[in-house]
Design a protein that fits this description.
Elements: E1 10-13, E2 19-23, H1 35-57, E3 58-62, E4 77-81, E5 95-99, E6 107-114, E7 119-123, E8 126-130, E9 138-141, E10 154-157, E11 162-166, H2 176-179, E12 182-183, E13 187-196, E14 202-203, E15 211-214
Antiparallel strand pairs: 1-2, 3-4, 4-13, 5-6, 5-13, 6-11, 7-8, 7-10, 8-9, 9-15, 11-12, 13-14
């Protein structure tokens, strides 16, 4: 039996059956792989894994500004879920990250207030939603805001695939009250994890179930 299973022993025989030659090859030592090859292989593998995740599943964002105080503070590091909205629609009360409709190169973070088909009425520092479920209106309970100055009454009717979003820091937020509705195709995803600072780590940060008072 050969000591090297991958090599074949060759035996040449004469007419009389006597063996006359044997070829027993020795293995050729494998040439060491250059370190750069391993680095390139790792980089390619990382790109194959990371790029699809960043594009379609989750992406990191850093909060900039005070429009979502005190729910989110400037400099906090978030992981954004980009996958869920391929299978379900945004819900009222969820915190979403989206491309600013007037400048898609910028990303904003706000809370969903109005859904497609809603009529949003803002009056006397309160928000009322009118739709088929609440034909007389639902005045939202909003425990996530601290103050909201009274302003001129405002009404916004939302069409299909249109959302009304506002910052939790109502007096310091540029949102749908200023620049109008948010098209659904501008939404990147929802806040999944707050990673930084360490003492603020949590899942679904800022999420709240939407409640309110039904107007009879």
């Amino acid at each position: 039996m050969s000591l090297h299973p991958d090599l074949e022993e060759v035996t040449l025989a004469t007419d009389s059956g006597a063996a006359v030659a044997t070829n027993d090859q020795t293995p050729v030592p494998k040439k060491p792989e250059h370190p750069l090859v391993e680095i390139v292989r790792f980089a390619v593998l990382a790109i194959i894994i990371v790029v699809p995740i960043r594009m379609f599943i989750a992406q990191p964002f850093i909060v900039s500004g005070a429009s979502m105080d005190t729910t989110f503070a400037n400099g906090q590091y978030l992981i954004v879920d980009q996958l869920s909205y391929y299978f379900e629609e945004p819900n009222r009360g969820e915190v979403v990250i989206f491309r600013y409709p007037l400048d898609p190169s910028k990303f904003f973070i706000k809370r969903v207030i109005g859904l497609p088909g809603d009529t949003v009425v803002i009056e006397n520092a309160s928000v009322t939603i009118i739709n088929d479920t609440y034909p007389n209106g639902l005045t939202l309970d909003e425990p996530y805001i601290t103050t909201m100055n009274a302003a001129a009454p405002q009404t916004q009717i939302l069409g299909p695939a249109e959302y009304f979003v506002m910052g939790d820091n109502r007096n310091q937020s540029s949102d749908s009250r200023v620049w109008g509705v948010l098209p659904e195709d501008r939404i990147v995803g929802r806040a999944l994890v707050r990673l930084f600072p360490p003492q603020s780590i949590d899942f679904w940060p800022g999420h709240t179930d939407s409640t309110g008072t039904i107007i009879q």
